[in-house]
Amino acid sequence: MKLETMVKQRAVLEEEQGEEEAMEMRRLELWKHEKRDGFHPPPPTAAAPPPMPACDEATLVPPLNFAMVDDGIFRSGFPAAANFRFLKSLNLRSIVYLCPEPYPETNTEFLAKNGIKLHQFGIEGRKEPFVNIPDEKIREVLKVVLDERNQPLLIHCKRGKHRTGCVVGCLRKLQNWCLSSVFDEYQRFAAAKARSTDQRFMELFDISSLKHLTPSHC
Protein backbone atom coordinates (compact mmCIF):
# COMPACT_ATOMS: atom_id res chain seq x y z
CA MET A 1 0.00 0.00 0.00
CA LYS A 2 2.83 2.37 0.89
CA LEU A 3 4.73 1.52 -2.27
CA GLU A 4 1.65 2.20 -4.37
CA THR A 5 1.27 5.64 -2.79
CA MET A 6 4.90 6.51 -3.52
CA VAL A 7 4.50 5.46 -7.13
CA LYS A 8 1.45 7.72 -7.53
CA GLN A 9 3.25 10.71 -5.96
CA ARG A 10 6.22 10.21 -8.30
CA ALA A 11 3.91 10.13 -11.28
CA VAL A 12 2.28 13.42 -10.20
CA LEU A 13 5.68 15.11 -9.78
CA GLU A 14 6.83 13.96 -13.20
CA GLU A 15 3.63 15.26 -14.73
CA GLU A 16 4.08 18.71 -13.09
CA GLN A 17 7.72 18.84 -14.19
CA GLY A 18 6.67 18.00 -17.71
CA GLU A 19 4.16 20.86 -17.76
CA GLU A 20 6.78 23.33 -16.51
CA GLU A 21 9.27 22.22 -19.17
CA ALA A 22 6.62 22.58 -21.84
CA MET A 23 5.81 26.15 -20.70
CA GLU A 24 9.51 27.04 -20.70
CA MET A 25 9.87 25.75 -24.26
CA ARG A 26 6.88 27.82 -25.40
CA ARG A 27 8.37 30.98 -23.83
CA LEU A 28 11.71 30.30 -25.57
CA GLU A 29 10.03 29.85 -28.94
CA LEU A 30 8.07 33.10 -28.49
CA TRP A 31 11.27 34.99 -27.63
CA LYS A 32 13.04 33.63 -30.76
CA HIS A 33 10.08 34.65 -32.91
CA GLU A 34 10.03 38.22 -31.51
CA LYS A 35 13.79 38.60 -31.93
CA ARG A 36 13.62 37.37 -35.53
CA ASP A 37 10.92 39.88 -36.44
CA GLY A 38 12.79 42.78 -34.84
CA PHE A 39 10.15 43.22 -32.17
CA HIS A 40 11.20 44.97 -29.01
CA PRO A 41 8.79 45.62 -26.20
CA PRO A 42 8.22 49.38 -25.71
CA PRO A 43 10.00 50.93 -22.74
CA PRO A 44 7.81 51.85 -19.83
CA THR A 45 6.51 55.40 -20.14
CA ALA A 46 6.28 57.86 -17.30
CA ALA A 47 2.83 58.73 -16.14
CA ALA A 48 1.46 61.81 -17.89
CA PRO A 49 1.30 64.89 -15.63
CA PRO A 50 -2.20 65.86 -14.53
CA PRO A 51 -3.80 68.45 -16.82
CA MET A 52 -3.55 72.06 -15.71
CA PRO A 53 -6.88 73.39 -14.47
CA ALA A 54 -8.56 75.57 -17.02
CA CYS A 55 -8.82 79.24 -16.22
CA ASP A 56 -12.32 79.84 -15.00
CA GLU A 57 -13.61 83.13 -16.32
CA ALA A 58 -16.14 83.18 -13.49
CA THR A 59 -13.45 83.20 -10.78
CA LEU A 60 -14.20 85.87 -8.18
CA VAL A 61 -11.12 87.84 -7.14
CA PRO A 62 -11.57 90.20 -4.15
CA PRO A 63 -9.61 93.47 -3.98
CA LEU A 64 -6.50 93.86 -1.85
CA ASN A 65 -7.20 93.80 1.91
CA PHE A 66 -10.87 92.98 1.37
CA ALA A 67 -12.94 92.13 4.44
CA MET A 68 -16.47 92.36 5.75
CA VAL A 69 -16.84 95.04 8.43
CA ASP A 70 -20.49 94.50 9.28
CA ASP A 71 -23.73 93.51 7.57
CA GLY A 72 -23.79 95.49 4.34
CA ILE A 73 -20.41 97.18 4.99
CA PHE A 74 -17.14 96.06 3.37
CA ARG A 75 -13.60 97.42 3.19
CA SER A 76 -10.67 97.00 0.81
CA GLY A 77 -7.83 98.56 -1.12
CA PHE A 78 -8.37 100.13 -4.55
CA PRO A 79 -10.38 97.76 -6.78
CA ALA A 80 -8.85 96.79 -10.12
CA ALA A 81 -10.72 95.58 -13.20
CA ALA A 82 -9.96 91.99 -12.16
CA ASN A 83 -12.09 92.58 -9.05
CA PHE A 84 -15.20 93.87 -10.82
CA ARG A 85 -16.89 90.48 -11.08
CA PHE A 86 -16.39 89.97 -7.34
CA LEU A 87 -17.76 93.43 -6.52
CA LYS A 88 -20.78 92.77 -8.69
CA SER A 89 -21.53 89.67 -6.60
CA LEU A 90 -21.85 91.90 -3.51
CA ASN A 91 -24.80 93.79 -5.05
CA LEU A 92 -23.31 97.09 -3.91
CA ARG A 93 -25.34 100.27 -3.81
CA SER A 94 -22.45 102.58 -2.97
CA ILE A 95 -18.69 102.95 -2.91
CA VAL A 96 -17.10 105.26 -0.35
CA TYR A 97 -13.83 106.46 -1.86
CA LEU A 98 -11.42 108.15 0.56
CA CYS A 99 -8.75 109.50 -1.83
CA PRO A 100 -8.63 112.98 -3.47
CA GLU A 101 -7.51 111.69 -6.88
CA PRO A 102 -10.18 111.40 -9.62
CA TYR A 103 -11.82 107.99 -9.87
CA PRO A 104 -10.48 106.07 -12.90
CA GLU A 105 -12.69 105.99 -15.97
CA THR A 106 -12.77 102.17 -16.04
CA ASN A 107 -14.05 102.09 -12.45
CA THR A 108 -16.54 104.87 -13.12
CA GLU A 109 -17.95 102.93 -16.07
CA PHE A 110 -18.30 99.83 -13.91
CA LEU A 111 -20.25 101.82 -11.30
CA ALA A 112 -22.55 103.35 -13.90
CA LYS A 113 -23.20 99.99 -15.54
CA ASN A 114 -24.16 98.40 -12.21
CA GLY A 115 -26.08 101.30 -10.66
CA ILE A 116 -23.51 101.92 -7.90
CA LYS A 117 -23.24 105.43 -6.45
CA LEU A 118 -19.84 106.93 -5.72
CA HIS A 119 -19.29 108.96 -2.51
CA GLN A 120 -15.85 110.55 -2.66
CA PHE A 121 -14.12 112.13 0.35
CA GLY A 122 -10.71 113.51 -0.55
CA ILE A 123 -8.58 112.66 2.46
CA GLU A 124 -4.89 113.23 1.74
CA GLY A 125 -2.63 110.26 2.32
CA ARG A 126 0.54 111.48 4.03
CA LYS A 127 3.31 109.83 5.98
CA GLU A 128 4.24 110.59 9.56
CA PRO A 129 4.95 113.07 11.07
CA PHE A 130 2.91 115.13 8.57
CA VAL A 131 -0.34 113.25 8.96
CA ASN A 132 -3.42 115.43 9.24
CA ILE A 133 -6.64 113.44 9.58
CA PRO A 134 -9.66 115.74 9.06
CA ASP A 135 -11.99 115.04 11.96
CA GLU A 136 -15.06 116.58 10.31
CA LYS A 137 -14.54 114.67 7.08
CA ILE A 138 -14.44 111.37 8.97
CA ARG A 139 -17.79 112.30 10.50
CA GLU A 140 -19.24 112.91 7.04
CA VAL A 141 -17.93 109.54 5.89
CA LEU A 142 -19.53 107.77 8.85
CA LYS A 143 -22.89 109.42 8.15
CA VAL A 144 -22.85 107.94 4.65
CA VAL A 145 -21.64 104.54 5.89
CA LEU A 146 -24.31 104.27 8.60
CA ASP A 147 -27.17 105.28 6.29
CA GLU A 148 -28.79 101.96 5.40
CA ARG A 149 -30.05 103.46 2.14
CA ASN A 150 -26.43 103.40 0.93
CA GLN A 151 -25.82 99.76 1.86
CA PRO A 152 -24.39 97.38 0.83
CA LEU A 153 -21.32 99.56 0.38
CA LEU A 154 -17.55 99.31 0.06
CA ILE A 155 -15.12 101.66 1.82
CA HIS A 156 -11.71 101.92 0.18
CA CYS A 157 -8.62 104.06 -0.23
CA LYS A 158 -5.46 102.94 -2.05
CA ARG A 159 -4.22 100.08 0.12
CA GLY A 160 -7.12 99.71 2.52
CA LYS A 161 -4.80 100.39 5.47
CA HIS A 162 -4.63 103.90 6.92
CA ARG A 163 -7.56 106.03 5.75
CA THR A 164 -9.89 103.05 5.56
CA GLY A 165 -8.50 101.79 8.87
CA CYS A 166 -9.28 105.10 10.60
CA VAL A 167 -12.85 105.16 9.29
CA VAL A 168 -13.46 101.57 10.39
CA GLY A 169 -11.78 102.22 13.75
CA CYS A 170 -14.10 105.16 14.46
CA LEU A 171 -17.05 103.03 13.40
CA ARG A 172 -15.94 100.39 15.90
CA LYS A 173 -15.99 102.99 18.66
CA LEU A 174 -19.60 103.70 17.74
CA GLN A 175 -20.20 99.96 18.05
CA ASN A 176 -18.76 100.08 21.58
CA TRP A 177 -15.58 98.15 20.84
CA CYS A 178 -12.82 98.55 23.41
CA LEU A 179 -9.73 100.42 22.19
CA SER A 180 -7.48 97.36 22.31
CA SER A 181 -9.80 95.54 19.87
CA VAL A 182 -10.01 98.62 17.63
CA PHE A 183 -6.21 98.82 17.49
CA ASP A 184 -5.83 95.07 16.91
CA GLU A 185 -8.08 95.26 13.85
CA TYR A 186 -6.30 98.36 12.54
CA GLN A 187 -2.88 96.71 12.94
CA ARG A 188 -4.04 93.52 11.26
CA PHE A 189 -4.54 95.45 8.01
CA ALA A 190 -1.80 98.08 8.40
CA ALA A 191 0.77 95.50 9.61
CA ALA A 192 4.29 97.00 9.48
CA LYS A 193 2.82 100.26 8.13
CA ALA A 194 0.77 100.95 11.29
CA ARG A 195 0.89 104.59 12.35
CA SER A 196 0.77 105.83 15.91
CA THR A 197 -0.94 109.03 14.68
CA ASP A 198 -3.81 106.98 13.24
CA GLN A 199 -4.28 105.16 16.52
CA ARG A 200 -4.07 108.41 18.47
CA PHE A 201 -6.75 109.90 16.20
CA MET A 202 -9.09 106.94 16.77
CA GLU A 203 -8.53 107.10 20.50
CA LEU A 204 -9.46 110.80 20.69
CA PHE A 205 -12.25 110.75 18.11
CA ASP A 206 -15.48 112.02 19.68
CA ILE A 207 -18.42 109.80 18.72
CA SER A 208 -21.05 111.61 20.81
CA SER A 209 -22.48 113.55 17.86
CA LEU A 210 -22.93 110.35 15.83
CA LYS A 211 -24.51 107.98 18.35
CA HIS A 212 -27.98 108.78 17.09
CA LEU A 213 -27.02 107.22 13.75
CA THR A 214 -26.27 103.75 15.12
CA PRO A 215 -29.00 101.05 14.87
CA SER A 216 -29.47 100.93 18.66
CA HIS A 217 -30.49 104.62 18.59
CA CYS A 218 -32.64 104.59 15.48
From TrEMBL:
Keywords of this entry: Hydrolase
GO molecular function (one): diphosphoinositol-polyphosphate diphosphatase activity
EC category: hydrolase
Catalyzed reactions: 6-diphospho-1D-myo-inositol pentakisphosphate + H2O = 1D-myo-inositol hexakisphosphate + phosphate + H(+); 5-diphospho-1D-myo-inositol 1,2,3,4,6-pentakisphosphate + H2O = 1D-myo-inositol hexakisphosphate + phosphate + H(+); 1,5-bis(diphospho)-1D-myo-inositol 2,3,4,6-tetrakisphosphate + H2O = 1-diphospho-1D-myo-inositol 2,3,4,5,6-pentakisphosphate + phosphate + 2 H(+); 3,5-bis(diphospho)-1D-myo-inositol 1,2,4,6-tetrakisphosphate + H2O = 3-diphospho-1D-myo-inositol 1,2,4,5,6-pentakisphosphate + phosphate + 2 H(+)
Residue ranges of domain Tyrosine-protein phosphatase in the record: 65-218
Assigned GO CC terms: cytoplasm
EC numbers on record: 3.6.1.52
Family: Belongs to the protein-tyrosine phosphatase family. Atypical dual-specificity phosphatase Siw14-like subfamily.
Record-given protein name: diphosphoinositol-polyphosphate diphosphatase
Protein species of origin: Zizania palustris
